Amino acid sequence: MNKNSPILQVEDLRVSFGTRRGTLEAVDGVNLCLDRGEILGLVGESGCGKSVTAQAIMRLIGNSSGEYVAGRILMDGDDLMLKSEREMSRLRGKRMSMIFQDPMSSLNPVYTVGWQIAEVPIIHDNASRGEAHARAVEMLGMVGIPSPEDRVRRYPHEFSGGMRQRTVIGMSLSCKPDLLIADEPTTALDVTIQAQIIDLLLDLRRNLGTAIILITHDLGVVAEMCDRVAIMYSGYIVEQAPVHELFDNPRHPYTKGLLDSLPRAGRRGRLNAIKGRPPDPGNLPEGCRFAPRCPHAFEKCSKFPTIECVGGDHHVACWLEKKSE
Ligand SMILES: Nc1ncnc2c1ncn2[C@@H]1O[C@H](COP(=O)(O)OP(=O)(O)OP(=O)(O)O)[C@@H](O)[C@H]1O
Ligand SMILES: [Mg+2]
What we know:
Blueprint: E1 8-19, E2 22-34, E3 39-43, H1 50-57, E4 67-75, E5 78-79, H2 85-91, E6 96-99, H3 113-125, H4 129-142, H5 148-151, H6 161-173, E7 179-183, H7 191-208, E8 211-216, H8 219-225, E9 228-233, E10 236-242, H9 243-248, H10 253-260, E11 308-309, E12 315-316
Parallel strand pairs: 3-8, 3-9, 6-7, 7-8
Antiparallel strand pairs: 1-2, 1-4, 4-5, 9-10, 10-12, 11-12
């Protein structure tokens, strides 16, 4: 293992689903690279393919009929696409872990919360029951659940929505993964708990060097937590840059639109939401997929713009930014 090599490289990831209406291209040529300990924000409108990208990286998609996944997913240089399901389940929960968008789907109603957290160290670290129980109590305390010694014996239905979400986060951290994918981890929570979870994730990175892909709609959370940001639109990445660069110097018209739609202190009047809707993934236009909504669209946009470096670590997929062709 080379400490300087990226923890994760995703190359030309494509995911499609066979549906009754035909083929739906959910992810269409995504490239991502994540260094050890880095936090990458993955941002975009509902339905653009963020969760599908995350599930494909965890190899949770592509195992059933009607699900097609192509591309390369390298973790520590090791191609996950070539791993058996048995090898993958060993990796999941030990080296890579995911916080799902819907926390209830990760909790089993018939087992106590403590048992569900303890299960991870028992399976992966051969921990004894006593050690695992102590780890579960510690984890619940770490995610800010009051009286963890008592709560550990309770069932999921005895927890509030916010407590369940924090439990799920505790479960995904209990194995101290090298890579964590957090799919909207704070969206359902109120502001104070949201702040605690953000601190928790930042501590995790600081203390354990965990690399995180943070999927969120909230550009405020991105500004607070992320080192780099990838903006996704209709199945592909339209812009990627270090976080300050993206906020100070957005280049893609879609990114500019997202930033314009943010409330800012001192600004009056209505927010400028981007007009129109993303295209139907079952019927994608040729060329730039943002063109139908773009105020700057011109003839060239009828051809698909590949993503290119525009200087430093800033990449954009837009004909306005291309120097050649
Ligand atoms: N199992 C599936 N079968 C068929 N289509 C699917 C499946 N999972 C996702 N999709 C479709 O793939 C597209 C991308 O979905 P995805 O869940 O990745 O969006 P998202 O960016 O996470 O959105 P949100 O912000 O609302 O969570 C959507 O059109 C969705 O309907
Ligand atoms: Mg999602």
